[in-house]
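Supplementary notes for students who missed Thursday's class. We covered one full example, reproduced here. Read the sequence, then the structure, then the short commentary at the end.
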Amino acid sequence: MRIIRVLFILVGPALFLPPAPSEAQLRRNREPTLPPPSITEYDPRSTLVVPAHEVRRAKFPAVDLHGHPPTLNNSEAIKRVISVMDRLNLQVMVQARGSSGERLTSQIEAVRAAGYEDRFVFFTTLNLRGVGPGSGALIAAQLEADVAAGAVGIGEIGKGFGLLTRKADGTRLQLDDPELDVVWETAGRLGVPVFIHTGDPAEFFRPLDLENERWLEMAIFPSRRFNDRSRFPTFDDLMAERDRLLAKHTNTTWVLAHMSWYTQDLGKLGELFDRFPNVHGEVGAVLYDLGRQPRFARAFFEKYKDRILFGKDSFQPDEYPYYWRVFETEDEYFDYYRNYHAFWQLYGMGLPDDVLRQLYYGNALRIIPDMPTAGFPPRRAPPPPSTSDPIATSSAGPSEPNRSSRTRHP
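Structure (token representation):
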């Protein structure tokens, strides 16, 4: 026993020391012998030579669910957007700059007068500021009026809802506030989808330190820092609020902007899809995540091909081809278009045609009422279900249709 005690005295402290770094770790953490550049100065040019396939036009006509074109209230603006859409093979753009009342109807009328009513559809917006007793009924009434005037959906409901928007009493308006239940129930009854942007990337809610892979973006844009717990909920708490909202309104069709900011953890998004068959995802502004996991992302898109819709977000025409290239090719190690989103390179997912069709237009035609169908391929008969490929078939199945009397396209 004495020998054991002596050994413990001599060796015991070493048991509580952190492990010594390996030789590989030491080689990785070597300091440069020259003054290092700043993060914005360092811009290495790759010497890798691999096949490259630029894709200027989408392979199939696309619906941009997350369209943010300029206000479409005059023929000149409309024709400029149409010119871009024709070049990119965008057949229909959803005007998701939410508008209501006269601003909504003026755009619908201008598009009709210009002869392009088969190229645009419009979502309405909700005035969620100052919500108090009775607000829900007023908002629902305005929604009814806007849908009667031609709106085919709600959105984009911005990230301020849940983060910044305040109630009449000054408290934060939570996503699952019961005062708004009547609004979401009305959307379900009318058969129009709700396109909602909740929060921002999870990294924006974390400490701004040198391990945060969105450090540069947060450093450039102070308004994207949501890590002050005295002002903002945590990312997980915000998403829990959103999930309670979804659970209360299973007869409403939901489209989660930016794939719910779960593209860094597609397994979590899959769990959400499995739990809520009426929930869909939209791919705007998350290409940087999809393009760094091409094989896993492809398997995910194949499994949930009836749940994912194309959308771009900001209307920058030169950025759309990056989406076509990631989705349609198997190219390797190519640039992304904004270095503050991602300091890594992208890889093509090489999606099969049946998945591309659903992503680009099929799902939008199915869930958005009164969608124009001109310019899209005729409906294809679905292949027989496979029982041998567990990846290709969603356990949740396609979304259940809304219980609505409005005409819906297949």
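Commentary. Strands lie at 62-68, 90-99, 120-124, 153-157, 194-196, 254-256, 279-282, 308-309, 313-314. The chain is about 35% helix and 10% strand. If anything here is unclear, bring it to office hours.
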